[in-house]
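Annotators were shown the component list below and the corresponding predicted structure, then asked to write short factual statements about the assembly.
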Amino acid sequence: MDWHSETRDQALVATPKGTINHETADAFEEHLIPALDEAGKNNSALVINLEHVDYISSAGLRILMRISKRAREASVDIRVANLNDCTREIFQISRFDKLIPVFDSLDAAVAG
Amino acid sequence: MLVRFWGTRGSLPTPIRADVVRRKVIAALMVASGRTFADEQAAANFADTELEFPIAGTFGGATSCVEIDGGDGDFLVCDMGSGFREFGISSMERVGSGPKRTYNIFMSHMHWDHIMGFPFFGPSFDPEVTIRFFGGHDDLEQALRRQQEEISFPVPFDWLKANIEFNKLTPGEVIEVGGYKVHTIKQHHSHDSYGYRFEADGKSMVYSTDSEHKDGNETSEQAFVDFFDQADLVIFDTMYSLADAMTAKQDWGHSSNVVAVDLCQRAGAARVAMFHHDPIHDDEKLHSLHAETIRYEELMRRNRQLEIICAYDGLEILL
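Structure shown to annotators:
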């Protein structure tokens, strides 16, 4: 999975690229875990920028939930940014928009 | 293969109330907007073509019971929720004065909502009837006897006159019952549950309810994808949203609409029937969830379209 991480202000921004489904879910998690750890060490929020993600299936959403639970235990704020029309609908249908804060832009997500 | 739903609700029966019926009548009258109808057929046509399902109908409130109608052959049923009582009445009408038929009953598990119909099953009092239970649990008979102990029910199990036998199934084993090839899979649920795949005459139906796809372990998921492979119909527990199933309702033993679509799309199934509806969901809510699931399938579709059905009491699907 193509992946890019950067620090912006008080947030670690993780930017996956492509589709997140049962075939790429493991890779998604393998990138997210160290990102979460780094955010925790730096007392930063973890922003998952989905700008370049075409769609996310239940396999990907489950990974997000697992990471979200770990983030809560580690007292790390986790946020999602830049959902496209498809991923926004998926978040609504799955009710994940009620669980994980979603922001329309990266700036808004970084600012919290 | 004709599949008939006698009960589609989970947890407990949820009969419709008079005030709900009244609201439906009012809504129908508002849609009719003063029109008159020449006869009952004209009114029926209006109801069928211009009224949305939550107004003209209801998803019902009987708990899990699904029949595969084998015509004049033996009966085959999955689970004995409260819908099993009406199935029993219908079966006796169909038999009429003809030769008695065997009832082959496949049990997903013995939680109350899946066995509560049995004490009211008329054919169990007929000494010429044979009832064959199939299931993965060792304690199926114990569960049925216990719910008819005097503290819970006035008619003890030993008073039943039918020839009753219990057949233990092993996941992975394939058996032939009543003209169907039947496969069994173990599912994640409290005290375990089992799903079944029925095959006959080139058609296949999977009954997979009360199955929590917890954590999305890919090995486990692939096993279900394989089990659902190219099925003409998969009946799938969509009781909770994925978010609820992973948080507040985690370990409650149920699944969601998005998991249903993902697994069935991967399996190349033709149809999935949303099933085991949450008792807190009324007809409007279930109708809305159905629309959302259809939309999710559109968003996730990569090749073949998966037909999304929201099962209701009385639904018949001819495969």
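Statements collected:
1. The helical segments of chain A are 25-41, 58-73, 85-94, 106-111.
2. Chain A touches chain B through 23 residues (CB under 8 Å).
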